[in-house]
Automatic annotation (TrEMBL), chain B:
Locations listed in the record: Cell inner membrane
GO BP annotation list: peptide transport; transmembrane transport
Source species, domain of life: Bacteria
PANTHER family referenced in this protein's UniProt entry, alphabetically: DIPEPTIDE TRANSPORT ATP-BINDING PROTEIN DPPD (PTHR43297:SF2), OLIGOPEPTIDE TRANSPORT ATP-BINDING PROTEIN APPD (PTHR43297)
This protein's name: Dipeptide transport ATP-binding protein DppD
Ranges for domain ABC transporter: 4-254
Coiled coil: none
Bilayer disposition of the protein: Peripheral membrane protein
Gene Ontology cellular component annotations, sorted alphabetically: plasma membrane
Single GO MF descriptor: ATP hydrolysis activity
Organism, scientific name: Aquitalea magnusonii
Pfam families noted in UniProt: ABC_tran (PF00005), oligo_HPY (PF08352)
Alphabetical keyword list: ATP-binding, Cell membrane, Membrane, Nucleotide-binding, Transport
Keyword Disulfide bond: no
């Protein structure tokens, strides 16, 4: 198991290297530079522009800038925002819990309903339920997130008035952030001072539901389809027949003998969805004005805030990689044939 | 009364309108402690019969029979829950490919103990003790250390021993071995066969042995049913059936054993294949391939007739003097 982990870790180095090259290159391909964007429409004295670029170290040749960037990274220095002058790490730390909370809620929604729908569809193969689930999940998978988000807002928030339109919490509440997770913070606040903060938890929950559904829709569809096909495959295996020949109950055959094996490919897919989730968070957070990483990065790109874009994406990518790595380890736990491979 | 009594069993697959009969009018009875061999080509309905009996065809095949009785219980009318109390406990089955018959995600110990937990309610130390005992009974060396092994860490022969241990865990009255040695190499085949026969004797189980291997059947079985295209062609006692086969198909099977063609340039074969869904002849199912075919055979399907302690499905059974 340990050598398995080390082998997987070794593969990470080239991945990180590739990410730094990509973010460094791509953000510089966008026309305009941070100074021009800050100045805006006003005419800019070429000398002042050059001075400003020199101060920011952006007048050096690209390779030198890249070497500086990597050098700083290796020293654990993620730099500071060109605009706010706060360190990238601090900004990230403040905003990340919001994204994490949203992503976890979306993932919980997707995993619970995706597995359930996939398993039932596989057992009831060819039934109306099966066709229904597969049809809906194909629709869900092909739906543009921003459109889906707007439709839900228009229906549930505007027409029915069930959920708030945007943000994480009603402005009427003043909650001290302790964990950064609004659900936990409001719950703690309500417990500490029930009179002042009555209803805060419910309000936070209502704010979370719609974005979580929007963000979770694509992973839900992918997980449901993957679970179904994987279940169908495993149901045909000889060992499932053996399990039934042992006189086990259908529930035991399905959940102990089939699902356990069917989950192996589903786990990988769930892991890969973390990447989709981060991409989706950018759109979802923008639609719902959710103050998280996605919105932060979008703003940074439009300001050409090079350090924020480069290192923000690097941090996000690292998280995705770590998640996939954890999934790989889980994969080993779930599949003894991999765990024991030499 | 016999332990297992099957009368006029048919199993159909496919749509109601356009069904495929995998098994047609099958009769079979097995007494306690008896070894019955079922032989026949691939696709003759051997396995399907047994799977139908055990209720493993759920939702796929339609099962019709006059009688389907095991140990006094009518398997046609009992609920699925009742059936599950019998299957795996009183009737157990061993499958063809041991490498795929075990769940790769669980240790072999877990898979053996699972049966004991479900059917006998064993727990804790007694459970582990019994699992070890079973593994020793099927002659798995270093059983204690193998308890925590995963199926992929075992060889084919070892896996089959585990499958057998699982099957005999609750002292079944009837053990069905569906080509238990086909996927194993020759030396292991003999070991597994010996093991099965020894267990049959020591546990006094009835044993149904589905196989292609006539030699094995000749050695161990008390009775043989020869199946062709979903029907029993002939059922008779051993060794009579080997000395004086009455059905042309049985005769052809015996002739095709390589040892019988010693010195010949070519092995003896029965030309043609088992008829499929759409090319079943209207007369005797063997008529297109039968070397002794007559006009009546092409026109009319023969029923089973009693002959010399067994049954045969042929208009013109081979008599002793012809053979």
């Amino acid at each position: 198991m340990l050598s398995f982990i080390f082998r997987r870790l070794g593969l990470l180095i080239p991945t990180f290297f590739g990410i730094t090259l990509l973010t460094f290159g791509l953000i510089r391909m966008i026309p305009g530079d941070p100074v021009e964007v800050m100045v805006g429409e006003r005419t800019l004295d070429p000398q002042m522009h050059a001075d400003a670029m020199h101060r920011l170290g952006l007048d050096k040749p690209l390779y030198a800038q890249y070497v500086d960037y990597i050098g700083n990274l290796l020293h654990g220095n993620l730099g500071e925002s060109l605009v706010t002058k706060t360190s990238v790490w601090t900004e990230f730390k403040t905003l990340f819990p919001a994204t994490l909370e949203l992503a976890l809620a979306a993932m919980a929604f997707a995993v619970v309903f995706g597995l359930l729908a996939g398993v039932i569809a596989a057992i009831k193969r060819g039934s109306i339920f099966d066709h229904g689930v597969m049809g809906i999940s194909l629709t869900g998978f092909s739906m543009p997130i921003f459109w889906w988000g707007l439709i839900l807002i228009m229906f549930f928030s505007v027409k029915l008035g069930w959920t708030p339109v945007s943000g994480r919490l009603d402005l009427a509440f003043d909650i001290t952030p302790r964990t950064g997770f609004m659900l936990i913070d409001t719950w703690l606040a309500e417990a500490a001072d029930p009179s002042a903060n009555a209803g805060a938890f419910k309000d936070a929950l209502m704010h979370l539901i719609l974005p979580a559904i929007v963000l979770g829709t694509i992973p839900l569809a992918v997980i449901a389809r993957m679970t179904r096909s994987s279940m169908l495959e495993v149901l045909r295996e000889d060992y499932v027949r053996t399990a039934r020949a042992k006189g086990l109950s259908p529930a035991r055959v399905i959940f102990v003998h089939t699902l356990r094996n069917a989950l192996i490919p589903v786990l990988t897919v769930i892991g890969l969805q973390v990447g989709t989730l981060m991409g989706g968070a950018v759109l979802t957070e923008t639609i719902f004005s959710w103050p998280g990483i996605g919105k932060w990065l979008i703003d940074a790109i439009s300001r050409r805030d090079y350090p924020v874009v480069q290192n923000g994406i690097l941090i996000v990518a690292t998280l995705v990689i770590i998640t996939n790595f954890l999934v790989d380890i889980l994969y080993g736990v779930a599949n003894p044939r991999i765990r024991h491979a030499k | 009364m016999s332990l297992l009594e099957i009368k006029n069993l048919s199993v159909e697959f496919g749509s109601e309108k356009n069904p495929f009969r995998a098994v047609e009018g099958l009769d079979l009875s097995v007494n306690q402690g008896e070894i019955v061999g079922i032989v026949g080509e691939s696709g003759s309905g051997k396995s399907v019969t047994m799977m139908a009996m055990m209720g493993l065809l759920e939702g796929q095949g339609r099962i019709v029979a006059d009688t389907l009785q095991f140990d006094g219980k009518n398997l046609l009318t009992i609920s699925a829950r009742e059936r599950r109390k019998i299957v795996g406990k009183d009737i157990a089955m061993i499958f063809q490919d041991p490498m795929t018959s075990l769940n790769p995600s669980y240790t072999v110990g877990y898979q053996i103990m699972e049966v004991l937990k479900i059917h006998q309610g064993l727990r804790g130390a007694a459970l582990k003790q019994r699992a070890l005992e079973l593994m020793e009974m099927v002659e798995i060396p270093a059983a204690a250390s193998r308890l925590n092994a995963y199926p992929h860490q075992l060889s084919g022969g070892m896996s089959q021993r585990v499958v057998i241990a699982m099957a005999i865990a609750c002292n079944p009255k009837l053990l069905i071995a569906d080509e238990p040695t086909t996927a194993l190499d020759v030396t292991i085949q003999a070991q597994i066969m010996d093991l099965l026969v020894n267990l049959q004797k020591s546990q006094n189980m009835a044993l149904i042995m589905i196989t292609h291997d006539l030699a094995v059947v000749a050695e161990v079985a008390h009775k043989v049913a020869v199946m062709y295209a979903g029907q029993v062609a002939e059922m008779a006692k051993v060794p009579g059936i080997f000395r004086t086969p009455t059905h042309p198909y049985t005769e052809a099977l015996l002739k095709s054993i390589p040892e019988h063609s010693k010195g010949a340039h070519r092995l003896s074969t029965l030309p043609g294949i088992v008829p499929g869904q759409y090319d079943r002849p209207s007369g005797c199912l063997l008529s297109p391939r039968c070397p002794y075919v007559q006009d009546k055979c092409k026109a009319q399907r023969p029923g089973l007739t009693a002959i010399d302690g067994g049954v045969v499905r042929c208009h013109y059974p081979i008599t002793a003097k012809e053979a």
